[in-house]
């Protein structure tokens, strides 16, 4: 059985939303990297810090109900709203604010943006 840990993610410089508490659990422990192929370093670090499993969401199918959080690189069209609409915690590496056709689903309870690798796991003072 995996050793899961909580991770609080706050908006990065110029970002919006959150904070989100990522807490993988059995059956919902995928950190889905939806960034155009491969596993983005932000997704990998979230997985490393939480005990989740980083997966490339483009090359392997991942059900919404399996995702602890989705890491995206969307500036404001589809992906930025699809995951929050499905109530999946969504981490955008771009400093995006609610925009696009699904903007009404982009709420601070499900979305945080501007997240950088160097900000993850740091204690905030």
Describe this structure in words.
With 125 residues, the chain is of the alpha/beta class. The protein has one domain (25-118). Helices cover 14% and strands 22% of the residues. It is built from two helices and seven strands. The protein has helices at residues 41-50, 79-85, and strands at residues 7-9, 20-22, 30-34, 53-56, 67-72, 90-92, 111-113. The strands form two sheets. A five-stranded parallel beta sheet has the order 4-3-5-6-7, with helices on both faces. A two-stranded antiparallel ribbon has the order 1-2. The protein is globular and about 40 Å long.
Layout of helices and strands, plus pairs?
Layout: E1 7-9, E2 20-22, E3 30-34, H1 41-50, E4 53-56, E5 67-72, H2 79-85, E6 90-92, E7 111-113
Parallel strand pairs: 3-4, 3-5, 5-6, 6-7
Antiparallel strand pairs: 1-2
The end-to-end distance, rounded to whole angstroms, is: 33 Å
Strand order of the largest sheet: 4-3-5-6-7
For the record, the count of structural domains works out to 1
State the share of residues found in helices, binned by percent: 10-25%
| Strand residue percentage | 15-25%
Structural category? alpha/beta
The tally of strands reads 7
* Mean pLDDT reading: 91
**Tally the helices: what do you get?**
2
Low-confidence stretches: none
- Which outline best applies? globular
Radius of gyration: 13 Å
Biggest sheet overview:
5 strands, parallel
Order of helices and strands: EEEHEEHEE
């Amino acid at each position: 059985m995996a050793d899961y840990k909580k991770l609080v993610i706050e908006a990065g410089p110029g970002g919006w939303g959150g904070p989100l508490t990522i807490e993988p659990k059995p059956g919902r422990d995928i950190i889905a990297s939806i960034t155009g192929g491969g596993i983005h370093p932000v997704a990998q670090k979230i997985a490393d810090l939480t005990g989740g499993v980083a997966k490339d969401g483009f090359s392997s199918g991942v059900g919404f109900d399996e995702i602890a959080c989705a890491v995206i690189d969307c500036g404001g069209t589809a992906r930025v709203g699809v995951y929050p609409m499905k109530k999946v915690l969504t981490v955008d590496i771009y400093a995006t604010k609610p925009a696009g056709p699904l903007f009404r689903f982009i709420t601070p309870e499900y979305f945080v943006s501007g997240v950088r690798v160097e900000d993850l796991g740091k204690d905030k003072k």
